[in-house]
Here is the input.
Amino acid sequence: MKEKLFFVGLVFALLLNITPLFSTDLRSLQNITGDYAMQNVMGRSCLSLNGEWDVMVDPSMLGENKKWWRIRTPKDNHDFVEMKYEGNYRLKVPGDWNHQYPEFFYYRGNMWYKRDFTYKVESGRRLFLHFGAVSQHCSVYLNGEPIGKHEGGYTPFQIEVTGKIKSGKNYLIVRVDNCVTEKTIPALQFDWCNYGGITRDVNLVSVPETYIRDYFVQLCQDDEKHLQVHIRLDGPSCAGRNVTLSIPEAGFKKNITTDASGIASAVFKSKFELWSPENPKLYEVNISTASDTVADRIGFRTVRVQGEDILLNGKPVFLSGINIHEEIASVRRRACTPADARYLLGEAKSLGCNFVRLAHYPQNEYMVRLAEEMGFLMWEEIPVWQNISLNDPDVRRLGETMLNEMISRDKNRCGIIIWSVSNETFPSAKGRLEALVGFVNTVRNHDNTRLVSSALHGAKAVKDGDRYVMRLDDPLIEHLDVVGNNKYMGWYEPFPCDGKNLHWEIGLGKPLIMSEFGAEAVYGNDIDTLSVNSWSETYMEWVYKEDIKSFSNARNLRGTSPWILFDFLSPGRSNSLYQKGWNLKGLISPEGNRKKAWYIMHDYYGK
Here is the structure.
């Protein structure tokens, strides 16, 4: 009965060319426009606080007890003051500390950052400190007073500093640590470099007293003729405000009025040129009120699952992909600039990809926006990786927060078609299924315009007559839209047979993505042997050929993303002859040289 009433109400409202969301949807709307960092900082009035910051190293973690956040100058010649930021180390922000000084390469601990800045306060304006990301945890202090904390190294956060910024000179101190424990995400064990520092942009953002904090402008699920709009104002007088949404190129202009909570929500009839990898069309979208205006570039598309197919704009699509870490391997640092993003995505484009898996964490906003402009479909995930205490309520809460922060930032990026809740978690782990199903439900409450997945592992080969069949018994599969499968046949375990006789029966009835596969090789090592211990390009190439043979025996295969684009730093990789602290599964060496396996994937995608 509820479904019938909803449908009748929807049809009636559409006849009026506007459909307010009903109360059941408003509960979801509270999540869609939640209390996270504002949308689209790049489109706001900002004072950049990037640049060189003075730092003090705190390996003994004494800074908090010694109040390193409060600058004190000597009262006279007899007043001893030990603390001083200036005169020693300086670190570039954004950037990790690991690559900037040799002595910090493996450093794990506290680092205290200080930056002075001058500002002129304007009346009638609110001020926010916005951090693109700080790796992994931080405490923030302004003019000697604590103002906020954040946990998680890959998502944005903001702190309101209205009334705390002074006209004239101010100083900002940020205590950063890259420590991991059993209760952090990622936890103690993970397979990439634990870069530390203020790794993304820092801005002081100025907005009106009542400003456009958040918006979600996307086509309705599987309905390219209707646009859903959710806009949230923040300020002292949000109720009953007129909000105008205009898309000039499409001749689209609508007015909506906010409710008592400052939320304006509607569904409109619409007609747009649809975004796709072949035609990555983006429109200028303007949102304005009497006091504030925000402009963004947004694309429109639909994505859904039909049986074992992924439908983009109603048509089946195959995801020709690659995994990418946020790293510039040649200089051993975190990627953090628009130029970095263009370099990495340019290599993915050269490979023939239409899809990138941003592993294993939300990557820089420059990366996401540029990928969309270049026509890449995207998979984005949070760093819930392998051995993690998902039975712990605090860990679950942190995972929920990371999901919310990731989706809140990127929900208007139409290139993202998959949110992933985890990578390679163990089905037998206590509390794992309950926690991940909770994450899946969080995603669906937050955003109904995309698909939900997880990269699973642990598939086993079962002999079936003259063939072998790969099967995976994981109860999480039934809760996913798309099944991701990580399996390194020929590397961590041998192929049970020739690839042409290896069949995949994982997640039948749903689309399957081979989300990770491959082998390691040292570029230039051309030993002509098919030994797994050769670390040769010859062996790596053979593994890829056998993988591709087997993929033709996966009836529900709708995408592949080999691991990985570039070799990357991973200090736990301990083969001192070959790895030397690197994971060598990249199709490209750190110096930019393409391995033989690169050409195998390039040809596969070309066909």
